[in-house]
Amino acid sequence: MKRVIWAIQAVIFYLCTLAFSLLPQGLVRPVGHLIGTMGFVLIPKRRHIAITNIRQSLPAMTKRPDWDFPTVTPEKITRLMFCHLGISLVETCRLYHGRGEEVLQSIEVRGQEYLEAARARGKGVVVLTGHCGNWELAALALARHFNSPMAVVARRQNSPYLNSMVEKMRLRYGNLIIYKDNALRGMMSVIRKNGIVGLLVDQAVFPENGALIDFLGRKAWASKGPVVLARKSGTAVVPAFIHREADRQVIEIQPELVFSDDNSEQGMAANVQKYSRAIENFIVRHPVDWYWVHRRWKRAGELLTD
Fold it and tell me: Residue 130 sits in which domain range?
């Protein structure tokens, strides 16, 4: 019975993505905006999580010198975030059906010299990012810009039909997929060939896999993975994030992160804090472009009610 349900879901998913892919380019943003507005209204649980997360993070964000939104409210950020997600959904549907060339070619890449310098060392590159902007689009765009496939670490979908469909989109543009159940071996294989690995590291992990850090003014568990990988392989870890600027999208690549060799618990936490700070900085500058609906602070004293 479960496979029948999965098959029905896959058919519905395919038909919806096909309909969105056939939209004229000029309707992508208006339709995406409408879908996001509907999501804001019709998904109250996620809306509540996002509003609560933002409200509890604002005290820390507003103290930062790069915060530039003095009158914004948690509700407004959440509404705009949902609209951004709606637009990203329509863009991703077009990518899935092979109609994403116009979007890919229009993306501006800043700081490409940092990634080029890291690749020149010959030990591979880990592009460290989060659920920022249209992260699916960012992975495809970077691969296209640097003429090198990116191996993206992803979670396997529960539905094999849906998983195959998502695979199709990622592989269509030449990227590779490394599933989390065999991630370390897959990443090491790519790195040994001086390849590029994309890591999303802005979600909560279990304590045994992470370090307890400060994130937007509250304690949170963050993955040790990037630090362990850098130490094990000597690969460069380079932060990169995508965001929207008016009618275009921009990928900003930042200088390589250099981690200390301190193997103590405090040393690991300091290194994890270092890369997490790069994600924090992005969120403070572009609060609408981050995926506030996930429970980033769970298992570390998260409060879901105001």
Answer: 2-289
Could you read off the pLDDT of 92-149 as tens digits, one per residue?
Answer: 989 888 887 888 888 999 999 999 999 999 999 999 999 999 998 999 999 888 988 8
Q: What is the DSSP string of the chain?
A: -HHHHHHHHHHHHHHHHHHHHTS-GGGHHHHHHHHHHHHHHH-HHHHHHHHHHHHHHHHHHTTSTT---TT--HHHHHHHHHHHHHHHHHHHHHHHTT--HHHHHH-EEE-HHHHHHHHHTSS-EEEEE-SBSSHHHHHHHHHHHTTS-EEEEEPPPSSHHHHHHHHHHHHHTT-EEEEGGGHHHHHHHHHHTT-EEEEE--S---GGGEEEEEETTEEEEEESHHHHHHHHH--EEEEEEEEEETTEEEEEE-PPB------SHHHHHHHHHHHHHHHHHHHHH-GGGB-TTS-TTTTTT-----
What total number of domains does the chain contain?
A: 1
169 vs 8, 14, 18, 89, 162, CA distance in Å? 19, 12, 13, 13, 11
264 in a structural domain: yes
Residue 298 lies in a domain: no
pTM: 0.93
| Within a domain: 45 | yes
What does the angle CA 151 – CA 182 – CA 168 come to, to the nearest 5 degrees?
45
223 belongs to a structural domain: yes
